[in-house]
Amino acid sequence: MQFGSRVDFGGDYTVVVVEGDIDMAAAPGLRSLMQRTIADGNPSLIVDLTECSLIDSAGLGILLGGLRRARAAGGTLELVVPFDHLRRTFEICDLDRVFTLHASSDQAAHAIASTAERIA
Amino acid sequence: MSADEVILRVPAKSDYVALVRVVLAAAASIDPDSRDDRVDDLRIAVSEAVTNAVEAHQLAGTDSRIEVRCLTDDSTVEVTVRDRGPGFDPDAVPSMPNVETPERLLFENGLGLPLMRRLVDRTDIESHDDGTLVRLFIDTASKTKTP
To answer: What is the interface pTM, i.e. ipTM, of the complex?
Structure first.
């Protein structure tokens, strides 16, 4: 399935919805999208993988870099991964200990709000 | 059912990784006993193997094609990916920092080989200075390996 993405700008966070497969062909596009979004003053991202059919190590690496950049800009990166087949890829690589894998974007938004409250 | 073979020779370009995934997943799904989750495992493992091959060809500056063979015998699938890159030592892959440390976020690469090995039942890698041969074995009728 071909990679696609769209960005929904909100108040305290920005949602990046990813569609299709995130592999070495799609990874550069996702990286530059997240870099641009953070550089434009939106350091807290929700990357929604509900419509993502496959993620391999190239995609996982991009998300790690995205989390690093978001934190460096004073924000964070939360993931929406509702389906088991995708969660398994994160778990095999122990990345479920790096990211919280939320079941919905509402849960991810709540996590960002909680983090903001803690910092304030 | 006798063994069936599918052979692909694809350009070493990132856009062709998806093509290989689609063809091999379709070949592996022909067996009525194949499980969707195991075919998903195969798709990712193949993606890793072909990605490594594309990167190896780009590193070597060669425009030769990557050869992918898929041998299916009932639910048993053997995939072979052969590249003409500079080779590497599969046992010398650097270890990662602990996942719960900030240093882990500095490493965006290096997940491919461990992921590939965990997804399939067996992985054989032969690498020399004129190329690498990766063999993946998976029984698509068996249960998924737990993380």
So the answer is: 0.91
